[in-house]
Amino acid sequence: MRQRYLLLFLLLFTALLAQAQSVGVLSGSVRDRATQQPLPGVTVALEGSSLGTATDEQGRFRLTDIPTGSYNVRVSFVGYEPLLRANVNITSGNANIVNLDLTPSAQQLGEVQITGNRAIRVASAETPLSVQRLNTEEIKSNPGGNFDISRVVQVLPGVGGGGTSGTAGFRNDIIIRGGAPNENVYYLDGIEVPVINHFQTQGSAGGPTGLLNVSFIEDVTVSTSAFEARYDNTLSSVLQFRQRDGNPDRVQGNVRLSGTEVAGTLEGPLAKNTTFLASVRRSYLQLLFKAIDLPIRPNYWDGQFKVTTKLSPKTTITALGLGAIDHFEVAVPRESSLEKEYILRNTPSIDQWNYTLGVSLRQLIERGYVNVALSRTQLNNQINRFEGGAEFSDDESRRISLTRSGESENKLRVDVNRSAGKWLYAYGGVGQWITYDSRFFNRLRREVLNPDGSVQQPAVDVRFQSDLSFARFGAFAQVTRPFLPNDRLTVSAGLRADGNSFTEDGANLLRTLSPRLSASYALASRWNLNASVGRYYKILPSTLLGFRDNAGQLVNKNTRYIGSTHYVAGLEYLPTANTRFTVEGFLKNYDYYPVSVRDGISLANLGGDFVALGNETVNSSGKGRAFGGEFFFQQKLTNNWFAVASYTLFRSEFTGTDGVYKPSAWDTRHLASALLGRKFTRGWEAGLKYRFAGGAPYTPFDLTASQQNYFTIGQGVLDYSRLNTQRLGSYQQVDFRLDKKYNLRRVTIDLFVDLQNVFLIKNPAVPTYTFQRTADNAAFLTTDGQPLQPNGSNAVPVILAEDDATVLPTIGFIVEF
């Protein structure tokens, strides 16, 4: 019977292939980047073919009966810089919808040859350097990316991956130019989205798995400096995720199954001038980890939607939403080991949910446009950890930690963007209302008694309950103009100021004045010299602002905004319209950085730990510096090849109470990456990616204190007198991906194999401290054969090296219909 069904399936599949009509559709719109006005008469052509068209009076275009495959789309119009949208994939299953923005040319008509090679440029007049862009195909086909945008951007210069201390393969914290992961801000279609990962560390944006559905994304722009004045609360980067619009002509969608999740996306017209995108995704990581006998069990759901309505030729309203439900626990493995027992007893259970809802209005006005965006984000976080593991969760006497916290942000943003002759200017403001509540308990040390009942070692607990609500507000202005003959020099200047109603003197906008200045000079037809200097500020996360001491006082009200001044200069070389080289040097000076009052240590030197807790008294006395240089090469799709390579050499150091600069938790010194892709005939595509990071610094254990306290807290105690004096080995990983596409009649099937760490390279993480256990792992081994003493005096200490090599294979498919 099974053979009959298999034969029937093969016959049907063969019939579908025979009827396949391997043609697809490309449609979209073209607008003026400065004014967002639609551009009629723009030429849109597919490179390497005779196919092309021009936009209509509303700036729209549509190309049909395109043979399936990958194309470079060239867009040109008199008076504008040419645009190249590389590696646009045309399939028979889904129409490809793109939105394109053209930049007014800074060159005269006689200088057209100068602008010809600028089609690949990502930079704008306001951000002429330290900016990169990835389109949807580069994200989807990224080897080892697993359709996770946070992982994909790690191929860009200056972008380090993972958490602190060598965990680059396991987390999505985005570390940019030696800055903390919470120094980045994220915008989805102009609406700020604080949470972009599942199992987020509160106070940061990191987590092991991305939240955004790549099927929605048109492109991602990453700015690592020279931020426009419209962006607030950022010190290291601005990531802008631009979503495409739904198909206005018919309902279409896709189903994706990978090694970790299943996802479905649907889109199409809802009404005249209204389109929608909607998706839902479900993890089955917990089943995979159970099958390979790992004790961790992550489990999540997420959903996303976008609805776009064109109310009139000049008015567009967009509603979007993003949300997740996360559950993480540990389970007893089938076969025990010392390493698994450590995970079982030292990993908390986590329950989280979060969402962002937003609506934005874009109104075209004379020589410009106005944006109005209203959004709400809410996060709920619950963490539990018990001595001996989750199996003792009914015994409150064994509780080591508890977190019950919630946070919400309500935001209103308004910006006006105009042009007047050669002048471009923008201004606007933002207002936010933030609420935060937390109930927190953490046992640092259990009470130890002498045989006579006297206290040998007092208990040390951190316990508090807090809530707060406050307003944040800010305003900005930016002006841009070209100068010199042929407009060879473009200068942009901006100013913003931000304040809040919570911290002492927080309403004094003079304390956060943020001037920014950037310039770009066209040295020759293929060379650009760029520079930028800017001052940026960021308020502390609510996990720190909401901390109360034992008397119930909000002790961190006297902190200041973290400040950072960036100095960046670079050279850009554009040998062809598909090729780009950049070289940049950067210096970031930090001041008012938070320092732990308890330990006298900068939170940057503690790394990711402080955002996991963030519950302590701090002051704003810390300083920091991150400096270095980076190289970047990009080859867009040319003769079926595409490539990216980057290298960054840097240092990241911060001071504590002692005023001495010490390596931050992100000071890996070296970051390198390379990606090579090849498009073959008959729908085959292959990609290879390599990543390298220098050894991350870490703090060794205080062996005496660790032995005395391990029985109580289940972890080693760090020796902060040797803060970040040790370094791990380097991190390396090679990933491989192979795709095969079948274009049937209005259906496309993409079969793929993705291998992470294909060469099984060992990548060390920070070692862990534990006590040796008996052969069956049922109890602790002791030196005298007696039960373990509370002070650990008869224990056998062991330091576990975290350097296992793991390959993660993924076999999956995408069906477009």
Kindly state the percentage of residues in helix. Answer: under 10%
The helix count comes to 10
Q: Which ranges are low-confidence, i.e. pLDDT below 50, for 5 or more consecutive residues?
A: 1-20, 107-115, 164-168, 609-613
Number-wise, the strands total: 45
Morphology call: globular
Tell me what portion of residues adopts beta-strand conformation. over 45%
Radius of gyration, whole Å: 28 Å
Query: What composes the largest sheet?
Result: 22 strands, antiparallel, barrel
How does this structure look, described?
The chain is mainly beta and 817 residues long. It is built from 10 helices and 45 strands. It is globular, with a radius of gyration of 28 Å. Residues 1-20, 107-115, 164-168 and 609-613 have low confidence and may be disordered.
Which SSEs are present, and which pair or pack?
Elements: H1 2-19, E1 23-32, E2 43-46, E3 52-54, E4 60-67, E5 69-76, E6 83-90, E7 96-102, H2 112-116, E8 131-135, H3 136-140, H4 149-152, E9 159-160, E10 175-176, E11 184-188, E12 191-192, E13 197-198, E14 209-210, E15 217-223, E16 237-243, E17 252-257, E18 261-271, E19 274-283, H5 285-291, E20 296-312, E21 315-330, H6 338-346, E22 349-365, E23 368-386, E24 399-420, E25 423-445, E26 448-449, E27 455-457, E28 460-483, E29 489-500, E30 514-522, E31 527-538, H7 542-545, E32 562-576, E33 579-596, H8 603-606, H9 609-612, E34 618-638, E35 641-655, E36 661-663, E37 670-679, E38 684-693, E39 697-698, H10 703-713, E40 726-727, E41 731-743, E42 748-756, E43 765-771, E44 797-802, E45 808-816
Parallel strand pairs: 1-7, 11-16
Antiparallel strand pairs: 1-4, 2-3, 2-5, 5-6, 8-15, 9-10, 11-12, 13-14, 15-16, 17-18, 17-45, 18-19, 19-20, 20-21, 21-22, 22-23, 23-24, 24-25, 25-28, 26-27, 28-29, 29-30, 30-31, 31-32, 32-33, 33-34, 34-35, 35-36, 35-37, 37-38, 38-41, 39-40, 41-42, 42-45, 43-44
